[in-house]
Structure formats: structure tokens, C-alpha cells
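QA checklist item 7 of 12: single-chain prediction sanity check.
[x] sequence parsed
[x] length recorded as 110
[x] structure emitted
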Amino acid sequence: MDKKEIALSTGTVPPARIAELGLVTGSCVISTSILGDALAPLRNMSVGGELKQYTELLRMSTEKAIERLGEKACEKGADGVYAIQFMAPQVAGGAAEVVAVGTAYKFNDT
């Protein structure tokens, strides 16, 4: 199956008539520039508000983790992935880490 057609679901109930293929993961760590990382604490202390550079890092890391999750599912011959969970263990030191974990499945032919 083409990775662009993989079905992704955060639901915890498996779809009907499937065979589970096991866990698949995708992860990504993206870092920011030295200058951006140095200015983030200053902005946080002075005016507060959203640290847009870190928000963008998390967005990019999440998208890449999902892409890699789909690639791993395709390698197993999966039709989809369900029960996807995301973890963002740390956003510090100028890096954003996102891990995506789910259960790959293939529809039964019957």
C-alpha cells in the first residue's frame, strides 16, 4: 500500500476484520538555531506569550514522526495504523522531539 493511502487513527478500538501486524513507531528530533534558542528565554521573561519557534519545531517534528510511522507500517504491508499515541518527551536545549507509536493492521480478505 502506498504510504499516502495509509489509514491513521488515534482510536483505541481496532477496525473490524483485521489482522494486527504489531507496533510501529516513528520519531523525529529537530533543533533550532543557536540564535533562536538564545533569544527564547529572553522573550519568555520579557513579554511572555507563545514561543513560535518552538511551536513550529513541534509541528515539524510531529509531521515527520507521522510520516515515518506510515513508512514503517508500509514496510510491514499494513493497510493502516490505529491507537496512535504521541509523546513529546522534551522541548529543551533548542530541540523538539516527537515519538508516534501505533498498531499496524491489515484487513482480512474474508
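[x] summary fact logged: The chain has a mean pLDDT of 82.
[ ] second reviewer sign-off
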